[in-house]
Design goal:
By secondary structure, this protein is α+β, with helices and mostly antiparallel strands. About 45% of the residues lie in helices and about 20% in strands. A hairpin with a 4-residue loop joins strand 1 and strand 2. It is globular and about 40 Å long.
Length: about 80
């Protein structure tokens, strides 16, 4: 993936996804994954918001389409679950 961890973290923060609750980005170069943790029961909505934002950036020509599709392919969004 051509994006860096910092680029993804900054971009997710810029989307104001933290308004959905605790949102964290975990990055794994070894597994080639971007894991975003969204507020409880909000993962589907956050996933759609990320996908829409990526598609808008592709359409506007502000990001490389191949890199953006690669990012989406390796994106995992899960719900935050507080440990008991």
């Amino acid at each position: 993936m051509a994006y860096t961890k910092q680029e993804v973290q900054d971009w997710v923060k810029k989307l104001d996804l933290n308004t959905w609750g605790p949102t964290e980005v975990y990055w794994s170069d070894s597994f080639h994954r971007v894991h975003v943790i969204a507020a409880d029961m909000e993962s589907a909505a956050v996933t759609e918001k990320i996908k829409a934002a990526v598609e808008a950036e592709i359409a506007a020509g502000t990001t490389d389409e191949t890199d953006a599709r690669d990012f989406l392919e390796h994106l995992i969004v899960t719900d935050y679950a507080q440990e008991d």
